[in-house]
Amino acid sequence: MAPKDQPDADLFREAEPLLPIARALKESIDEKLVGTGAGSPIDVDEAWDAAVRSVAEAIISERLGELDPERVLRLYADTVDDEALKATLGSWAAEKAEELERERRIEGLRADCARSGAIELARLEVDTLIRLGLFERRQISQAHRESSLPPSRTTSLRLVDPERGYAEVIADTALGPSARDLLAPQARGRIGSTIVEGGEEWLEPRLQVHAPLGYDFGDGPTRTNEVIGYAELGDGLLLIDGGARRR
Questions:
Q1: SS (H, E, C) the chain
Q2: Beta bridge partners of 132
Q3: How many Å apart are CA 216 and CA 180, to the nearest integer?
Q4: What angle do CA 218, 221, 223 make, to 5 degrees?
Q5: φ and ψ at 136, to 5 degrees?
């Protein structure tokens, strides 16, 4: 014989998927009602309509996150009559398409960097943040074996003109006793790989793993004593790894 409260349990199971929606709807209605102010007349119907729309848009946005932007654009172009919803769909699709395009660009860049061990700065965007782990030459082979070995210094830079390799120093921090000639924060100049040919020396806007960081901040091209062990972009996206990054 089924327990007396079985119908209630069945009903709860059926309703459970709707509970987050109901909860969000209640919170939205409460917010709309409170927002009218103590001295203002309360329009429950208006609060309900606004709450339903707010929650519906949140649900739509969540579901749209699972769709291909092209499919969303077709929906936007072919079947949507509501102007506000059309604007929401169009805005979301454009934003999502841009995000996916950036992800494809980064993945292509990572694949190229993995093959060449180098970052072509011209392929990065303005204001990209780069964090380099620099190691003493004699440390590199040890860092391959011992991933816990810290770099001698970390150098963070912001790209101002990627094509020229022009950057601003954010920070240059010594982590070992051998690090010296640190770059001054906010200093600006060109960075890259130092090329020497025919008695001339210049910088190519490229960062090469296991090679020094070349730079020119107004005193002519020079380079670090340490070599690049790894390079990260933004909030920690590993772009090149010479096997020296801490794990």
A1: CCCCCHHHHHHHHHHHHHHHHHHHHHHHHHHHHHHCCCCCCCCHHHHHHHHHHHHHHHHHHHHHCCCCHHHHHHHHHHCCCCHHHHHHHHHHHHHHHHHHHHHHHHHHHHHHHHHHCEEEHHHCCCCCEEEEEEECHHHHHHHHHCCCCCCCEEEEEEEEEHHHCEEEEEEEEECCCCCCCCCCCCCEEEEEEEEEECCEEEEECEEECCCEEEEECCCCCEEEEEEEEEEEECCCEEEEECCCCCC
A2: 155, 231
A3: 16
A4: 115
A5: -65, 150
CA angle 141, 147, 149 (to 5 degrees): 75
pTM: 0.61
Per-residue pLDDT of the chain (247 residues; tens, 9 = 90+): 445 445 545 544 554 554 555 566 566 656 655 655 545 555 666 666 666 666 666 666 666 666 666 666 666 666 666 676 667 667 777 777 788 888 888 888 888 888 888 999 999 999 999 999 999 888 777 766 666 678 889 999 999 999 999 999 999 998 877 677 899 999 999 999 999 888 888 999 999 999 999 999 998 899 999 999 899 988 777 777 755 455 4
CB atoms within 10 A of CB 25: 17
Rounded Cα distance, 174 and 180, in Å? 7
Cα dihedral sign, 165-170-175-180: positive
- CA atoms within 13 Å, Cβ hemisphere of 137: 5
| Separation CA 134–CA 227 (nearest Å) | 5
- In order of 97, 103, 204, the CA distances from 108 in angstroms are 16, 9, 21
